[in-house]
Amino acid sequence: MAEGPSLSDFMRHLQAVLEESTDIPDAEERQQRQWQIEAAIQEAIIFGNRFRELQEHGIDPLRLVKPKENDPAAPPVNKIEALKTGSMHCAACGAHLEADLSFCPACGQEK
Questions:
Q1: What is the mean pLDDT of residues 94-106?
Q2: Which DSSP state fits 68?
Q3: Which of 22, 26, 39, 44 is deepest in the core (most CB within 10 A)?
Q4: How many domains does the chain have?
């Protein structure tokens, strides 16, 4: 697999774009863009947590074929559980931290 930006890099990018969105003059457009970015951040967190969870269960997260009869089934996940996996709080602002990020998505403080 080619080296490139990590999930953490993508999350930093989204956080920067979210901050930049405060400069959008039209309130409705600004709110819509912020919702889009926040949804993308949540999906990235869910993806990262689900990826780790599958790896911990010995399942290749990138395998895109139908499982064989003897392959273990992936554990079920819902969005709430996925968002809470690896939960910690920022020492600077108290916001929810994700284990895979090296910074606070709310204030940018390094872990």
A1: 73
A2: P
A3: 44
A4: 1
